[in-house]
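Possible regression after last week's pipeline update?

I re-ran a chain I had predicted before the update to compare outputs. Posting the input and the new output here so someone can diff against the archived version. Not blocking, just want to make sure nothing changed silently.
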Amino acid sequence: MKHQYEPRVLALDDKQLEHFVKDWVASRVLEYRQWQRWGETGDLGRDVVGYVTDNRHEGPWDNFQCKQLKKRLSLGNAFLELGKIFKHSADGAYSLPRRYTFVAPRGVARGVQELVSHPEAFRTAVIQRWDELIARRLVEKTTIPLSTEIKAKIDEFDFKNIDWLDAEKLVADPYCLRVLVGWFDADPGRAPRGSVPTDLQATESVYVSQLLHIYAERSRQTFRDSSDALSHPDHGDHFRDQRIRFFDAMEFERFYRDSTPLDYVDTFKHEVYSGVIDTHRRQHKDCLGRAEHLLDSPINVSRELRRFSPKRRRQVPGAIK
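New output (post-update):
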């Protein structure tokens, strides 16, 4: 269960949390074209950024501010972090983010939760409490007043797009499974079986044509299409089984592409290749004989085919050993 990884996230230090969140953002490939971890001195209020387009900061972008604290993120610190964004955007360092998310494994204070739930009240509070909670904390020994330019940025930003994630919410995110596998050896679970359509699909056309070729070689007769294979007394069942295997393999790859770090499936394929290539190179009666021997070959991989978990952990900066 994912909740068992919440303590592991809580145990990360500041930099490890940033790398963890960076990997999580990087896994959201449908949302972000690029990502970047800024979280060092001079990050201008940005820890991890997801860029929606190749225009990066000149286009829409989302900010993930990581706060690994000993207690919940306070209202004052939440105001301070937002103040950095409004100030630096007003200074021309970057455009306003599209979304702003506090990633605080121990959660945020009740006051922060209330304001996140009331976006316009949040905007009003930032303006009204700027002098109290932000002005003297942005730059050491300097007071940054609420200038016309900063207020314009506060007015421009959509406060509905402020959110927060604690450890529970973070590990529950579907995209986080891939990161949990890479960092903590989480079990992604079993891949579902493939669904075999009655009609042939374009995705299997090359595979089917190869099957028809090896059936023709063995039987010394022409196989015009799949109906010839299905009706053949020697090859009909074999053809049905290979279509099942084909769609099982497609579902297997899709499932683990979505739930493990990006290099895991390629590593698994390499292990399969290494396990069968010697058998493939041997002399065989014909191509169908080669295929039959390959399917019977013992494959030296780290887990059985339908419960994939790579032997070698992906090495990520700051990952817990």
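Follow-up from reviewer: compared with the archived run. The two ends are 20 Å apart (CA to CA). Marking as no regression found.
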